[in-house]
Amino acid sequence: MKERIVILGAGESGVGAAVLAKKKGFIPFVSDNGSIREPYKSVLVKHGILWEEGKHSADLILDAVEVIKSPGIPEDSKVVKAIIAKGIPMVSEIEFAYRYTKAKKICITGSNGKTTTSCMIYHMLKKAGMKTVLAGNVGKSFALQVAEGDYDYYVIELSSFQLDGMVDFRADIAILMNITPDHLDRYGYDMKRYIESKFRITRNQSVDDYFIYCFDDEIIKANMNRVKGNAKTLSFSLDTFDNQAAYVKQEIVNFHINKDHFTMSIHDLALKGKHNAYNSMAAGIAGQLLNIRKEMIRASLSDFQGVEHRLEPVIKVHGIQFINDSKATNVNSSWYALESMTDNVIWIAGGIDKGNDYNILKDLVTRKVKAIICLGKDNSKLHKAFAECTESIVDTNSMAEAVRTAYYLGKKGDTVLLSPACASFDLFENYEDRGRQFKQAVRAL
Q1: Which domains does the chain have, with CATH numbers?
Q2: Model-level pTM greater than 0.85?
Q3: Are 28 and 157 in contact (CB under 8 A)?
Q4: What does the pLDDT look like over 245-287, one tens digit per residue?
Q5: Given CB 3.0 to 4.6 Å as the disulfide criterion, which of 120, 379, 402, 414 pairs with 374?
Q6: In this structure, are residues 128 and 289 in contact, taking their beta carbons and an 8 Å threshold?
């Protein structure tokens, strides 16, 4: 008799898990308390998977042998509490998919930079002719990729929410880019819980695995001995040369693992800026560990095209440059964006505040930002934080209005930067929707 598996949430993660469950002989049932968007509904119908939307039917859900919970559903939700109370095992889509592949897994997390680093590593593996795919928090879900393909290497971007659902999952190579305050609303405003969530990427690693981390991140260093696992550790740095697997010295990027050493000019990296130097170093170390030729690593880091919605130049309109950094959903990410700008920035910011502390931005805003365009339902915290830092702060209610306002305030040589420092769900479906609306509004000027 086939067993029922319930999947909570019908987004990328949930639908991918349902498809894999069906392929492996289970009877999947997908339950979403909201509405199920296209094309996800079409995928469920195509595979003959039962689903419901706008509710969670307790009688059907509590009849499961296992529940796969999508990462966006909080642990304290009513349906999750009921599942826990009945003692039904509950795992993440990442954990479920792990059971069905023996491929190597290169896993990347961090408060910032994880998408760019994941895409860099994927680009490198593809360029080297390896049978690989991008999965997890970027691209298609890990479960769907396992269900539909047969790969030797999975490059998996992992959010803290996905890591929270790990039990037996093991990364062959784990990369932790940085830890800065983010999603603290989800963690009871307890930074310690968020740190532990990020370090779960090292969970279950053995002495044969590798853990790559940023040596310059004080939070990571302060917690290494307390929470790191059994893997061999390799670090990268812009400030320290000794005992680093990658470092920058006199504008030369050095990669050095055991006796394997090679260099490249920092000016040859495809993506510029301090944060991208970190991303490139992490990717290069992973490439070395996967025995990719040095020439191929250099070429991959030199011709990588970048990530949509991450410091993405759109167009110039009458000499005003518009840049889409919609993926900047936290303060530290916006710090990197502003740090990479010259003067005369018109900054579009705002959305759902996740417990943001804007103090680290004040100096950059004072020096570089001539106006702030607030784009969110509640902009009071932005006004309070930056009232004395810039000439003007303007409230807007839509992306089209925000872009028009920025354009009217700008002049030749200025930069309009969308880098919200907040989540997008008050006015947009997600950061991608926010970024696409920005680009559409800019092109409509």
Answers
A1: 4-88 (3.40.50.720), 96-303 (3.40.1190.10), 312-443 (3.90.190.20)
A2: no
A3: no
A4: 999 999 999 999 978 899 999 999 988 888 889 999 999 999 9
A5: 379
A6: no
